[in-house]
Amino acid sequence: MNDRMLTMAEAIREAMSIAFDERPEVFLLGEDVGIYGGAFGVSGDMYHRYGSQRVLDTPIAELGIVGAAVGAALAGMRPIVEIQFSDFTAQAMDQIANQAAKIHFMLGGALHVPMVLRTPQGSGTGAAAQHSQNLEPWFTSVPGLKVVVPSNPADAKGLLLSAIDDPNPVIFLEHKLLYKIPGRDSVPEGSERIPLGVAKVVREGKDLTIVATGIMVNKSWEVCEKLAAEGISITLIDPRTLSPLDMLPVYESVEKTGRLLVVQEGPSHAGFINEVIAQMAGSPTFGSLIAPIKRLAGMNIPIPYAPQLEKAAVPQIEDIELAAREIVKNWR
Amino acid sequence: MTTSPLLIGHPLSSPEHARHALLYMCRIRKFEEAVEDLFGRGMMHGTMHLSIGQEASPTGMCMALNLDDQITSTHRGHGHCIAKGADLTRMIAELLGKEIGYCGGRGGSMHIADVDTGNLGANGVVGGGIPIAAGAALASKMMKTGKVVVTFFGDGAMNEGAFHEAANLAAIWKLPLILFCENNKYGMSSSTEKAFAIDNLKDRGFGYGIPSVNVDGNDVVAVYEQAQIAVERARAGEGPTLIVAETYRWKGHSRSDKNLYRTKEEIEEWRLLDPIPKFISRILETNILDQNQIDAIQAQAQDQVIAAVNEAVKAKSAEPAGLLDAVFKAVNA
């Protein structure tokens, strides 16, 4: 196996390490990011390599931690703040949504907040409702936040480097089921960036366009593979950055396929993926659709505990496969 | 270290220092009165939170700071901005929604920031600036800039989680932070008696291992003296100090306040403790300036505010064009 087949946790650590080496003002702070190596092992050995001044363990105080990151960013540092579970960002939401997101605009551009908030999200670990949410819909509804959702290690590395470079607050949502698995592609060496706001066409086909976020890209890939064997070819698009959103490849693809399926893990009501549908509905490409747009999203419920219930709460590979087959079969 | 155009030092250490302290307190008073007047005449939009009666606290605190030391401020923040050296015209212009205003009309009264004078911004959220100030102090420590950061907040903010989380971070990391509480006795309508089960707010600091002091917040000399001790501690790497300045808000919380929660007598009692005459009597006692000089300084403050209002009123209104581009700072800019 190629030794560049890193897991997402390894790729994120590599990106942080590159940024640490490039810029003295970059530092990491969060709960248990030091000797413990992070709740999901993402910071790993960075404490030993960079020391306690740059890998800063904090008390359990999300509002204080994020506020300190905002203030440090205002004062010339480039903090990466890790919140142990995305659910806990609720504790820090004033600093995220009222402070970090608004400072540049509200203060007339006098100050800006070059901060990255990294946090694991998503279901599938049996941790129940307060440790399993997908918060893409929350953060994408706040003007002033950039929102990045990597679906694989190579993207995670390049996107995180861009996020750290960015002069604005970036929410970097990492799916915890992806941390320990290598991607399909090896992770490039070096410090090449992947720009924010550029969607990725993961594979191209002619029968259906799927737009999916985060772990749903991986699930959709499985469906693409399976249906390809049956002669159904699918274009799979990963927006990667949800704010700002790059719709161009979606329009280009739907003009060819005429069919659109959108998939997200977060709850359907007022969810992020609805924005993709709304923009499509208002675009000239709408006329190219030969099928109603199909949406798959999480149920409008808190994530339940029992494995069979948890599985039922969010789209699974079988759900995506069924939806894809039906669109292609029913609309010709 | 940048040298401040503001005067640093004890308000009674020289005629120039006395002049500075008096001028800045009067500027704050006259600024607030002008704001109230503009509201009364329907020329100003939104709301206002006036700091009349509290002028000694920001003035005394900022006379202990270098220009590049930093502050965070509050919804009642005009005094902090002025004491740190903000431009009066750009402040009034912001309140009038003008292009030359500090935020180009996008922030208004509660969001004035002035990078040139180390003002990291007022804040519309009670307690919102305290963790931010802790972060700026963390940056000072990490970058070894020697900067001290002061976070101004009111008594109401001491019951916010933000105060507690930030105070703890500042204490464990020994940050060069001064937690400056202006205890003006009311969080909107809630008195400190109703909102606290302790008699002295400074006791909150001890729970975090932070040296904490009370000071007469209407005495610019006393405020400076405590501020100076806190600044020295912070610069020496000894960590944060909590200063609780006892003062009083003469006016209502905001324009809608009918003062139903306090008595006229109480307000009158505090008006007798006006920080400006209090300092003038200190000046006269020490013969550092004479009455003519004092009168001239007060007239100068009035003239400066009038000139700022006149210039701001004439300035160009902010336009909606470009609002979308203002949300993010351009990458590579």
Structural class of chain A: alpha/beta
Number of strands of chain A: 12
Taking all residues together, what is the mean pLDDT of chain B?
A: 96
* Structure classification of chain B: alpha/beta
Give the overall average pLDDT of chain A: 97
Distance N to C terminus of chain B: 27 Å
Number of helices, counting only DSSP H or I runs of 4 residues or more of chain A: 11
Shape label of chain A: globular
Rough shape of chain B? globular
Helix content of chain A: 25-40%
Oligomer: heterodimer
Q: How many distinct beta strands of chain B? A: 7
Brief rundown of the structure:
The complex is a heterodimer of chains A (332) and B (333). With 332 residues, chain A is an alpha/beta fold. Chain A is built from eleven helices and twelve strands.
Write the layout of secondary structure elements.
The complex is a heterodimer of chains A (332) and B (333).
Chain A: H1 8-22, E1 26-30, H2 46-50, E2 55-57, H3 62-74, E3 78-82, H4 93-106, E4 116-121, H5 136-140, E5 146-148, H6 153-165, E6 170-175, E7 200-203, E8 208-212, H7 215-228, E9 234-238, E10 241-243, H8 248-257, E11 260-267, H9 273-281, E12 294-298, H10 307-313, H11 317-330
Parallel strand pairs in A: 1-2, 1-3, 3-4, 4-6, 5-6, 8-9, 8-11, 11-12
Antiparallel strand pairs in A: 5-10, 7-9
Helix pairs in contact in A: 1-6, 3-4, 7-11
Chain B: H1 15-40, H2 56-62, E1 70-72, H3 78-83, H4 88-95, H5 129-143, E2 149-154, H6 161-172, E3 177-183, E4 186-187, E5 190-191, H7 192-195, H8 203-206, E6 212-216, H9 220-235, E7 241-246, H10 264-271, H11 275-286, H12 291-314
Helix pairs in contact in B: 1-11, 1-12, 2-9, 4-12, 5-6
